[in-house]
isochorismate synthase (Brassica oleracea var. oleracea), 565 residues
Amino acid sequence: MASLHCSSYFLGTNLTKQNSIAIFQSYSPTSFTKLASRVSHQRSLLCSLAMNGCEADHKEPLRTVETRTLSTVTSPAIATEKLITAVSNLKTEPPSFSSGIIRLQVPIDQTIGAIDWLHAQNDALPRSFFSCRRSDAGRQDLLQDLASENVNGSSDHNPVSVAGIGSAAFFRDLSPFSHDHWRCIRRFLSSTSPLIRAYGGFRFDARGKIAVEWEQFGSFYFTVPQVEFVEFGDNSMLAATVAWDEEISWTLENAIEALQETMLQVSSGIKRGKRESLGVSVVSKNHVPSEGAYHPAVTSALEIIKAENSPLSKVVLARSTRIITDTDIDPIAWLARLQREGQDAYQFCLQPPGAPAFIGNTPERLFHRKHLGVCSEALAATRPRGDSAVSDMEIERDLLTSPKDDLEFSIVREKIREQLNAICDRVIVRPPKTVRKLARVQHLYSQLAGQLRREDDEFDILTALHPTPAVCGCPVDEARLLIKQIESFDRGMYAGPVGYFGGGESEFSVGIRSALVEKGLGALIYAGTGIVSGSDSSSEWNELDLKISQFIKSLEHKPALQPIN
C-alpha cells in the first residue's frame, strides 16, 4: 500500500484535503498567490502524501519517464503560477499509463540561490538540499586522461544547487541497501530526463542498531522532491514532479492531489540568510565519548594496531557532540552560513517527514559518475590554516613531511585505488599527494579516476567505496568491528554516502562535517579522526575540536574565514 506521511490539517481552520483541492481548482493562478499567503500565515502543518518506491516491483519498468519544459519566465512567482496551471491541465488531460513520473519545469531568467528559496518554505514539509562543490578544477582534465569520449559525455547544463520540498516518491527501508533497492530507484530515472534525481543518503553502518534520533531515516532514505528549485550558474528553474504506480495503489490522481496540497504551501518569496548572526547561543556542550573516556579508547586501538600479526593498520574513531541552545536552530539558516565559507565543499540537507534535519558541509567526494567515467578522491590527515601566508606554508610543509600523516593518507589512497581497479578497466591517480586547503583546515589529497565496464556498475561503486578508510579504517571489516566495540553512540548517516542518483549521472559526498538538528534538542555535531601507529590521543582530541569548529563558530556569530591565497 502507498505510505501516508500525514494528513493535511491547517491550524485554526477546518480545511480538509478534499476542500483544499476544491479551493485550489477554483482559484485562478493570480488569486492563488493570495490564498497561499493566507494559508502560510496560519502556520500550516501540512505534510505530503507519497509512495514508497521500495514497495514496487523493481523488475517492472515505469510506463513513462518524461520532462516537460515550459516557457521561460522572469520570477519565481510567475513560475509558480505556470506550474499551478500545468498541474491542473495534467489532471484534466491525464496520460493513460498505469505508472510513471512526469517532471514539469519552468526556467527562470534570474539567478537565485536555491538555499534562499528553501529558507522561505514551510518547514513542516520534507526537505532536501544538495549543492555541488563550486571549485572542482582539475576533475575534467583527470577524466580526459582516460582518453575515452564516453567518460565525459556531453557538457550538460549542470545544477549548482537543488532544493526540494515534499516527496513525489521516496525510498526507505530498515534493511540494508541492496541491489534490488537500487533497481527500485533506477525505475524512476532516465538519461532523457537528467534532472529527475533521487536525493538521499545511507547509514554509515547499515547493520547497526538505529538510535531513536535516526529512526525516520531508516537504513537509507532517498526522495524525488515534489517541488524543486534549481540554481544554475546564470539562471534558475522551478519544477514540480508527479510519480505514480497503480501496482502499489498510488494512482496518478493521488499523486496530483498530493502535489496540489504541497503547491498550496509553496512560497514565491526568497529569504536570504543573515550574514552576521543566527540569534542562537550555545548553553551547554557534551561530548560522547568524554575526553576522559576518549584517551583510553585511543590507547586500546593503538595496542591492537601495534600487536604482532594484527591486520589492522588504521581505525577512525568518532565523537558526537550534543549542543543545547537557548532557542531552536534553523537548520537551513545554519547551512547557508556554512555554505558561505564552504565554496570547496558539498552542502546537503536531508529531512524526512517528522524527522530532524541532517545537514553537512563536507569537502570529501565519495564518487562522481558521468556515463562510464567515475572519479573519486583520497582525503586524509588534518592541520589548521595559518594566520598568515608564511605560517600557512609552514603548516603545509609539516603536513607534507609528517611520516604519521603520510601513512594515514597512503592507506586511504591505495585502498581506493584497489577498490576502483575491481570495477574499472583502468585507474589513474593524480597527483600522488598534495595539500588541499579549505577555509579553516587543510588536508592531504589526491584524485583517482577510472572507466567503468558498464553503467550498471553504479551499485558496485557504492558497495566498493563505502566505507572508505578515511571514515572507517583498514581493513574495513576489522575496523568496523572495532568501531562497534568502542563507540557508544549511533553514527547514523554521519560518514555515510550522501548525494543523488540520476539517469546519466550520479554524485555522492561523504557525510562528514555534519550535524543532526532537532527541534527543542539543539544539535548533534559529529567528527572523527584516523588512528594509526604514531597517533597521539591528545593531538587527536584537538583535531576533533578543530573539525567541529566551523559549525560551532558559525553558530556563535563568528564571521566566516577567507581562504589565504
Q: What stands out?
A: The mean pLDDT is 87. The radius of gyration is 23 Å. Residues 47-148+157-282+343-510 form a domain with the Anthranilate synthase fold (CATH 3.60.120.10). The first strand starts at residue 51 and ends at 52.
